[in-house]
Amino acid sequence: MISFDKNYLNYENGTSKEWIIANHKGGYASSTIIGENTNKYHGLLILPKAPPRDRYLLVSKLEETILLNNKKYPLTNVYQENFKLDPFPTFTYKIENTTIEKKVFMIHAVNATIVTYSITSTSPYVFTSIPVIIHREINNEKNSPTIFTQSEHEKGTKVRTTDFNLYFSSDKGKYSKNEQLLENNQFKPGAFILETNGNEKFNVAMGDIGISNDFDSFYQSEVERASKLLDNFYSINKVAKNNLLENLVLTTDSFIVEDKNYYGIIAGYPLYTDWGRDTMISLPGLLLATGRYNEARSILDKYATYCKDGFIPHYISEKREPNYDHVDTSLFYIYAIYEFYKCKNDTTLIRDKLWNPIKSIIETYEKGVAGKLHMDIDGLLVVDSKTPVTWMDAKISNMPLTPRNGKPVELNALWYNSLKIAEYFADKLSDSQMKDHLISISQKVKQNFSKFWNSSEECLYDLIEPNDPSIRPNQLFAVSLDFPLVDNEKGRKIVQKVIKELLTPHGIMSLSKKDKNYVNTTGKTGDSMARAYHQGAIWVWPMGHFISAYLKTHGNKKEAASFLDSFFDQTNQKGLAALPEIYEPETFSPAGCISYAASLGEFLRAYVQTQKE
Fold it and tell me: Would you say 337 and 421 are in contact if contact means Cβ atoms under 8 Å apart?
């Protein structure tokens, strides 16, 4: 549980903390801990038009008032006594002799939000809850022009927008139609009104389908889901119970989406949908560490069907069109497959569904693709692309800000790792011809990887041919992966270089401050964000590979775990029970997505690694 008392709930503090809950179909609800919407992504009902993509803000808020002793009070932070996340957003208000507790939750795999009010009072009162409806794609600043039409529906109303039918209902609140079209195309259809004496509990539901009135069972079902997730996590990992850790484990659930019998992982809220590379990076921590093996299997199987000409898509567009531009996603896919195999120790899925995509990836990378990449005579991969094709993909006007043409260190570490994984599976599946071929390539890669050693800095070049001595987190992959490319002595030097120049309590800097290309602030938006994205900004997810590399080279789990201690304090910094995409390199303030799947996934994977016997 996360809690803030009245002393904290002023406007400045209260708008600095945000919560997000999700429905596993791409929809979500989000606001601040005082219920004030402060950016275009906030609202009570955000739904995907093409799940889990193309999301629209449909209900921005409920305007709530209570009439006590002939005086009307709005439910604002002026009267707010407490906010807690336990496990859902809960607001407590105290007005005269009346206490109002308000809970917000979404229903699993249903496009609906339910708000529950529990009112304790010794006086008669009239409580009113008014939906404020808009129609806007979440990335747009202005609400879309639309005509709102309203018709009767059981225990509430049905409102039609351009693309959605919205249903509003209540178990005890009586609906009173009173249409108001406000500026900026906001629509108030009417109000749910509860007039009574004493203590009462009632609910208001909103969604793209009508919701039955068994609201208590919906809430209990969501609580049980949360409890089961925690039980599974502790049962699998045998780690000590920790309240802050539990908050993060529960947040893993918000990233998982279900649509027509397959699963996906949302890369980050509120900016992204399900992206291939982010999915593969975060899968071990979000799914395998929490025992969600069926979901992991489904995702790996789904991406196998997307494999085209030896590439796994970097992302799926809003129109469900796969994008195959990036070259590291396919290698992260093989990495995720092996992480899954290590948990299940079963080659059935590999043999039946994944072996052909793995072979296709290896064969394509070996032969090369013009204008993208090829394997050199030394076995190392060479990038030759006019656009960014690795995770360091920031650009302005389609010009890469961190050019990766040449031989990137992390790509070749992932390449070697993939070759060895494929070699292992070839042996398991008795594919001797493929195994022998893979051995010949991997031996060549390992032999020639020595070209990456920068003796003057005692670490790895970030890029060779041309040689780039920039100190970045990419070199960690040569140490952290299951099949490392450096010996322990060099591995220790790499780790120490990262500790000296890149490690912070918030994650790993994308570039050393000593570098002439270092940018000291993201500026939060637009081109300024792009410039710092991989030229100084602190990333959380590479911290997982730092921990793996540290454990391999230093072997001290207690010391490794100590690097993660500060992250528990960061889970309430902006996005509650979440880890952000990046941090500012100088001020350490969060930037990018307030809740990022790869950040949380890699933190949990690394944390479990430091705790297991």
Answer: yes
For the chain, the domains span 2-213
Strands (E), 301-454: 315-316, 322-323, 373-375, 381-383, 395-396, 399-400, 407-408, 453-454
- Integer CA distances (angstroms), 244 to 1, 283, 347, in order: 8, 21, 36
DSSP codes of every residue in 340-378: HHHHH---HHIIIIIHHHHHHHHHHHHH-BTTTEEE-TT
Encode pLDDT of 279-318 as tens digits.
Answer: 999 999 999 999 999 999 999 999 999 999 999 999 887 6
Q: Is 552 helix (H, G, I), strand (E, B) or coil?
A: helix
Task: Look at the block and give the residue holding tokens 């903390």.
Answer: 17
B/e letters for 299-334, b = 16+ CB within 10 Å, e = fewer, are bbbbbbeebeebbbbbbbeeeeebebebbbbbbbbb
> Could you identify the residue written with the tokens 């803000």?
57
At 577, give phi and psi (nearest 5°). Answer: 55, 40
Q: Side chain identity at 241, as an amino acid letter?
A: K
Whole-angstrom Cα distance, residue 482 to residue 335? 9
Cis before 466 (ω within 30): yes
Give the separation between CA 31 and CA 434, rounded to whole angstroms. 53
Please write the tens of the pLDDT for every residue from 321-355: 889 999 999 999 999 999 999 998 989 999 999 99
Residues 6+ apart with CB under 8 A from 224: none
449: DSSP letter: G
- In this prediction, residue 522 carries a pLDDT of 83
164 token code pair: 């959605």
User: Are 606 and 248 in contact, with CB atoms under 8 Å apart?
Assistant: no
Hey, what CATH topology would domain 2-213 get? Beta-galactosidase; Chain A, domain 5 (2.70.98)
CA distance 173 to 184: 28
Q: CA distances (Å), 137 to each of 55, 105, 319, 542, in order?
A: 6, 22, 14, 32
Rounded CA-CA distance 49/138 in Å is: 11
- What integer pLDDT is reported at residue 281 of this predicted model? 98
Supply the angle between the helices 432-448 and 355-367 in degrees, to the nearest 10. Answer: 50
Residue at 110: amino acid letter: V
**What is the rounded CA–CA span in Å between residue 175 and residue 338?**
55
How does pLDDT run across 63-107, given as a tens digit for each residue?
999 999 999 999 999 999 999 999 999 999 999 999 999 999 999
Cβ contacts of residue 142 below 8 Å, gap of 6+?
A: 136, 184
Burial of 196 (0-12, 13-18, 19+ CB in 10 A): middle
Tokens 């992480």 found at: 339
* Interior/surface letters 241-258, b for 16+ CB within 10 angstroms, e for the rest: eeeebbbbbbbbbbbbbb
**CA–CA dist 408, 468 (Å, integer):** 9
Q: Which two tokens stand for residue 167?
A: 């249903």
- Pair 329, 308: CB distance under 8 Å: no
Distances (CA, A) of 282 to 279, 333, 606: 5, 11, 11
